[in-house]
Design brief:
The complex is a heterodimer of chains A (204) and B (245). Chain A has 204 residues and is mainly beta. Chain A has two helices and ten strands. Classes of the chains: A mainly beta (204), B mainly beta (245). The complex binds fe (iii) ion.
C-alpha cells in the first residue's frame, strides 16, 4: 500500500434528458422567469471582425434530425482572444461574449448562431491552431456531452497545419469538422451522431 | 520557489467514471451514440477558458423554485426542501463563480413542457427551473419542492427515480457537465435504466444526495446535500517546453 493521493473523482455524467430546454433555455420553453435565455445573443454591440452565421442540424444514426438537443459553442473573438477570466493575453472584444447556446428550431431542429469568424489561437507548444469553434452537444439519449470543433472549409492553409486536424487517423473524416460556405457570410455545419458521415468527436 | 501554476491543462477525463455512449437498456442511446473512437488530444486554450457569468443574470428568485413561477402570495405545492452543496475540482479546490442551472418535475412528477404527456397535474405555481452562481468557497444552494418519480417511455413500465437535473460550468469549457441528483433511499434508483448506465455503485452513490438534518429549517424545509466535482487541471511549476526555448 502507498499513501492516498486524495484526489476527488469527477461527478459522473447523466443524460440531459428530454427537458433540458426547461432548465437551460426556459424562455424558449415558455417559462418566462428571466429576461431572456442565456447564450441567445453573442454580440452585444458592434463587433470587430467578420460577422458570420452558422447553421446546422444534429442527426441521429437513422438520419432523423434531433429536435430536443441543446448545442453550445465557445470561441475567441476575431483577434483570437477569449472573453474569459483566465484569458491572460489581452482584452477581448467587449461586445462579443464568445459563448452561444441554441435549442434548435422547434419544428426542424436546425440551430443558428450569429457570431464572428474566430481568430487563431495557440496550441500548447506555441504553434497556431486553425480558426475553430468549440462545440458541445447534449440531448436525450446522449449519456455524456459530446465535444467537437467547427473548422472552416475556406481556411485551407491554416487547416493544413492545424495540430488536431493533422492528428486525425482517418483523414477522409476531416470534412465532418468543416463548416461549408452556403451563402454570403453563412456556413453550414451539420452534426451526425453515428453512421458513415459520423462527426469526429473529441475525448475532451 | 514559484507558485504552482493554476491554469495548467486538464487531466484526461476518466471515462470509466461516466456512462458509455451506447447503453442499450436506455433505448434512445442506441441511435444517438457515436461508434467511432473519440479523438484524444491535450487541452488547449480553447478548452481551458470558459465564459464568465456575472451575478447580474440572477433574478431575485433564481434560486427559489417555490416562488419564482408562483403568483404573488402563492407557492408551489410539495415537500419543501433546500438543496445545497459545494462545487470542487478533482484536486479538491473550490470552483467559485460557477453557473449552476437546475430543472425538475413538480411534486407530482410532471414537467412544465408541451411534449410532456404524464397525466399528473401541473402545478400553476411551479415552473421547475432555476439558476445560481457558486460563492467564493464553491458553495451553492436553492429552495424547491421535492420532485415526484415519473413514468417514461422506454421499457413497458419504466419509472424515473425522483431527481433534479444539473448543468455546470467551470473555469474551462472542458469541464462542462450535465448530470442528475437522486434522493437517498429512493427504491427507484436501483430499477432505472438511466441510473443503470452508470458503471459502479460508487458512481450512483456520488449522484445520490443525503438528507442533511443540520441544514433543515425547523417547521419549514428539510435539506439535502449534493456536492459536485468537475475535472481537474495539472498542477505544476515545470513547464513543458522544447529544450533551448
Ligand atoms: Fe427528468
Amino acid at each position: 500500500m502507498a499513501q492516498k493521493l486524495n484526489t476527488l473523482r469527477e461527478s459522473p455524467s447523466q443524460t440531459a434528458g428530454p427537458y433540458v430546454h426547461i432548465g437551460c433555455v426556459p424562455n424558449f420553453s415558455g417559462i418566462a422567469i428571466y429576461g431572456g435565455d442565456l447564450g441567445a445573443v453573442m454580440k452585444t454591440g458592434p463587433v470587430q471582425g467578420e460577422e458570420i452565421t452558422i447553421k446546422g442540424t444534429v442527426y441521429d444514426g437513422m438520419g432523423t434530425p434531433l429536435r430536443d438537443a441543446m448545442i453550445e459553442i465557445w470561441q475567441p473573438d476575431a483577434a483570437g482572444l477569449f472573453r474569459s477570466a483566465n484569458e491572460t493575453r489581452g482584452a477581448a472584444d467587449p461586445n462579443f461574449t464568445g459563448w452561444g447556446r441554441s435549442p434548435g428550431d422547434m419544428v426542424t431542429g436546425e440551430f443558428t448562431f450569429d457570431t464572428v469568424k474566430p481568430g487563431r489561437v495557440p496550441w500548447p507548444d506555441g504553434r497556431l491552431q486553425a480558426p475553430h469553434i468549440t462545440v458541445w452537444i447534449v440531448a436525450r439519449g446522449i449519456n455524456i456531452g459530446l465535444h467537437t470543433r467547427i473548422y472552416f472549409e475556406d481556411e485551407d492553409t491554416a487547416n493544413a497545419e492545424d495540430p488536431i486536424l493533422t492528428r486525425i487517423e482517418h483523414q477522409n473524416r476531416i470534412p465532418t469538422l468543416l463548416a461549408k460556405p452556403e451563402a454570403s457570410g453563412v456556413y453550414r455545419f451539420d452534426i451526425h451522431l453515428q453512421g458513415t458521415q459520423e462527426t469526429v468527436f473529441f475525448d475532451m | 520557489m514559484s507558485l504552482i501554476k493554476q491554469s495548467g491543462g486538464f487531466v484526461p477525463r476518466d471515462r470509466d467514471r461516466h456512462p458509455d455512449g451506447l447503453t442499450p437498456p436506455y433505448k434512445t442511446s442506441v441511435k444517438r451514440s457515436p461508434q467511432a473512437a473519440l479523438l484524444s488530444f491535450p487541452s488547449s486554450i480553447s478548452e481551458e477558458t470558459s465564459p464568465v457569468f456575472g451575478h447580474g443574470l440572477l433574478g431575485e428568485l433564481g434560486n427559489d423554485l417555490i416562488h419564482n413561477f408562483a403568483q404573488a402570495g402563492q407557492s408551489a405545492i410539495g415537500p419543501r426542501i433546500i438543496v445545497h452543496g459545494r462545487v470542487m475540482d478533482e484536486s479538491g479546490r473550490a470552483v467559485a463563480g460557477a453557473l449552476v442551472e437546475f430543472w425538475q418535475a413538480n411534486a407530482g412528477g410532471r414537467y412544465r413542457h408541451k411534449k410532456e404527456s404524464y397525466l399528473a397535474a401541473l402545478d400553476p405555481n411551479f415552473g421547475g427551473c432555476g439558476r445560481t452562481i457558486t460563492d467564493e468557497n464553491g458553495n451553492y444552494e436553492f429552495r424547491t419542492v421535492q420532485p415526484g418519480p415519473y413514468p417514461w417511455p422506454n421499457g413497458m413500465n419504466d419509472w424515473r427515480p425522483a431527481h433534479i437535473h444539473f448543468s455546470l460550468f467551470g473555469t474551462g469549457f472542458a469541464q462542462r457537465l450535465i448530470t442528475q441528483m437522486y434522493f437517498e433511499g429512493d427504491p427507484h434508483i436501483a430499477l432505472c435504466p438511466i441510473v443503470g448506465t452508470l458503471k459502479s455503485q460508487e458512481a450512483i452513490d456520488d449522484l445520490t444526495a443525503a438528507l442533511d438534518m443540520n441544514r433543515t429549517v425547523p417547521m419549514d424545509s428539510r435539506a439535502y446535500k449534493f456536492d459536485m466535482v468537475l475535472r481537474g487541471r495539472r498542477q505544476t511549476y515545470f513547464e513543458n517546453r522544447k529544450e533551448g526555448l
